[in-house]
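Good morning,

Attaching, inline, the backbone tokens for the sequence recovery test we're adding to the shared suite. The designed sequence is right after.
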């Protein structure tokens, strides 16, 4: 049965809806258009071109977050008089349930998954959606507009910067650090993109690093500042993924919202004991002759690498590099230098990062690929050493995504170290 059509969209569904982007967001938008009883046409850089003639044939254009606000296809659609709506906004217009939004530089996917896990554990109808790879519009199409459903929606800065219709009853803002400057051009603009979500949300629960960057004295009546940095260990979290930083930050924010929502804290702790991290997030892969290999391929920015390095008591053998996203490379190299014994660098940023690490006193080896980096690091390592893949950069220069990079790392560890390999279950 078709979903009820929001009045704002009704006049524009008589013609096919243009969907810009053929990835997860585009596929979700296509499903939602169908659930509304409409038809759609998808345009993508690898497929159909969105020409001026194509733009003139559509009244509504739904675009994926990969399309920056100044993308020529969006300008073309606006010039043709079309209504432009981001995919998350499109879903929000059709969603009849509650929305709890999650954003931040790091940790947002884990927090999204954990909060949905905890809500499901107490019998609520909840779905983890958004930037985690499960498009909100696809969830909206499947949920049928049920008012008792809760969307725990991860919102990236790319999604947040164009929001107009999205409204969350609460937002959890994990942290803030340098990232995505290749798109936002400045740290201030990146913060403003995240802050757009805060403006459109009810109560915002924000971590320590967000408060540190916010303008001093700026009135933020809807923000509850949650002290997430440097908090003492919680014995009740021992043995869970939240026992140590950086994941403890996520639990503290979840707990702040959970209490404010009037839910039983004991249930959240119980959910923490059954929650498991997604792959490629500082996961032990194997131990070989006293050397431990770690897959942290999800670390695609400087802040994530620094958080991972803080987990180790002595300097590691670091595998890093990829496609640049902007930021102070020299500052990054200086900050991590005390925690890195030797670096094995891959990808487009390898040469520049090698030079900055050398200036900071860290020897670096340029490697043509990930397999070679694993082999060189394994040759260098001895009992008690940690070999850490924590790239600090995007993966798209050499891989399909961070998952592909992490998978290839684990395969390389297996083939480099067998037959003495002892896989971590």
């Amino acid at each position: 049965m078709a979903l009820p059509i929001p009045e704002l969209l009704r006049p524009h569904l008589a013609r096919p809806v243009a969907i810009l982007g053929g990835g997860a967001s585009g596929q979700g938008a296509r499903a939602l258009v169908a659930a509304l009883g409409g038809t759609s046409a998808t345009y993508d850089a690898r497929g159909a071109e969105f020409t001026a003639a194509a733009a003139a044939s559509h009244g509504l254009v739904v675009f994926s977050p990969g399309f920056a606000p100044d993308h020529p296809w969006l300008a073309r659609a606006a010039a043709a008089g079309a209504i432009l709506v981001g995919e998350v906004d499109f879903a929000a217009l059709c969603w009849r349930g509650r929305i709890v939004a999650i954003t931040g530089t790091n940790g947002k996917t884990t927090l999204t998954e954990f909060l949905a896990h905890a809500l499901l554990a107490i019998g609520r109808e909840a779905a983890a959606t958004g930037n985690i790879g499960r498009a909100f519009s696809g969830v909206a199409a499947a949920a049928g507009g049920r008012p008792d459903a809760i969307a725990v929606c991860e919102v990236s800065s790319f999604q947040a910067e164009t929001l107009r219709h999205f409204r969350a009853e609460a937002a959890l803002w994990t942290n803030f650090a340098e990232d995505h400057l290749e798109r936002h051009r400045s740290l201030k603009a990146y913060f403003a993109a995240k802050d757009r979500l805060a403006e459109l949300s009810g109560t915002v629960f924000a971590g320590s690093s967000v408060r540190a960057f916010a303008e001093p004295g700026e009135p933020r009546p809807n923000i509850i500042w949650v002290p997430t940095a440097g908090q003492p260990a919680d014995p009740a979290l021992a043995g869970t993924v939240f026992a140590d930083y950086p994941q403890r930050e996520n639990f503290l924010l979840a707990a702040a919202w959970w209490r404010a929502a009037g839910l039983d804290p004991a249930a959240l702790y119980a959910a923490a004991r059954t929650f498991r991290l997604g792959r490629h997030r500082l996961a032990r892969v194997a131990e070989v002759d006293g050397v431990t290999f770690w897959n942290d391929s999800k670390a695609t920015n400087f802040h994530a690498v620094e958080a991972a390095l803080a987990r180790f008591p002595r300097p590691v053998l670091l595998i890093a590099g990829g496609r640049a996203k902007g930021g102070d490379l020299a500052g990054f190299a200086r900050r991590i230098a005390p925690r890195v014994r030797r670096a094995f660098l891959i990808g487009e940023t390898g040469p520049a990062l090698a030079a900055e690490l050398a200036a900071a006193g860290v020897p670096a080896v340029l490697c043509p690929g990930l397999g070679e980096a694993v082999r060189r690091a394994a040759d260098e390592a001895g009992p008690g050493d940690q070999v850490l893949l924590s790239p600090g950069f995007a993966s798209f220069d050499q891989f399909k995504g961070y998952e592909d990079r992490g998978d290839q790392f684990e395969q390389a560890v297996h083939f480099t170290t067998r037959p003495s390999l002892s896989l971590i279950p």
